[in-house]
Amino acid sequence: MFDRMKKMNFAEFGGPDVLQLIDAEEPHAGPGQIRIAVRAAGVNPVDWRIREGQVLGAHPTELPSGVGLDAAGVVDEVGEGVEGVEVGDRVFGEGSSTYAEFAVLSAWARMPEGLSFEEAAGYPSLMETALRIIREVGVQPGQTLLVSGASGGVGSAVLQIARDRGITVIGTAGAANQDYLRSLGALATTYGEGWVERVRRLGRVDAALDLAGSGVIRELVELTGVPQKVVSIADLGAPDLGVRFSGVAGSMPDALAEAADLISRGKLHMPIEKSYSLAEAAAAHIDSQAGHTRGRRVIVV
């Protein structure tokens, strides 16, 4: 008799309505892996992109499939060859099918003191993405980075990492999020008509990141002067304009270690926009796709 658990699943690609909460066999940790009792799972745009069937080379999907990559919880199984972690440890990291009561992680780190499971679950993918695109765009301390669509999870992380590294950030977001961007150390302005001139008045731009995919690649190239100083994670047409589209993940263990360091030093904090139950995963995806998020959305198990 196999042990059973609750798990969010989809048997066909499509909209949020394809998500179903099912009874499934519990997974087990293989070599180099750990299993956690999931306390919270991060909600990321990649989750609904995979559910829709978008072709994402880093995440090939076989149906039926679970949902979710990020999670925080308590270690309850340690795979062969794994050292430095024990049953009962509180960890956060990346795995597969994390919208579930139990999940297997392939990369993890111990949770810093004082961090809740909900907060921790929101960090893995966005920190890996934020660190990767800052590296790829080549911005250096003392320079100015423009972030288009700066108030979401990745943008919030980019702003705080940049501030810690001595990089000035100009961030664009909706009118309701201007004070939020300023609280993270950014020079803030709204998008919409005239935004390029508003950015110019705030200062020279050395590099730029497109996090929202709102059709601004040409303007970002204009502001930086060359397409090589622009990176997008949201506009699949960016390469047509000579701009790098960044979609292949770097080192998750390194990202988790840096996240833990920044959090422990009080240099990184990610607000939780909204929490959802496992059964509310479809609503979480609808809200994530709508954008305008301030910080993170998480599933609480």
Automatic annotation (TrEMBL):
Keywords: Cytoplasm, NADP, RNA-binding. It is found in: Cytoplasm. The keyword Kinase does not apply. Signal peptide: none annotated. Residues 14-299 form the Enoyl reductase (ER) domain. PROSITE patterns: QOR_ZETA_CRYSTAL. Coiled coil: none annotated. Its main location: cytoplasm. Homotetramer. This is NADP-dependent oxidoreductase. It comes from Streptomyces olivaceiscleroticus. The lineage of its organism: Bacteria, Bacillati, Actinomycetota, Actinomycetes, Kitasatosporales.
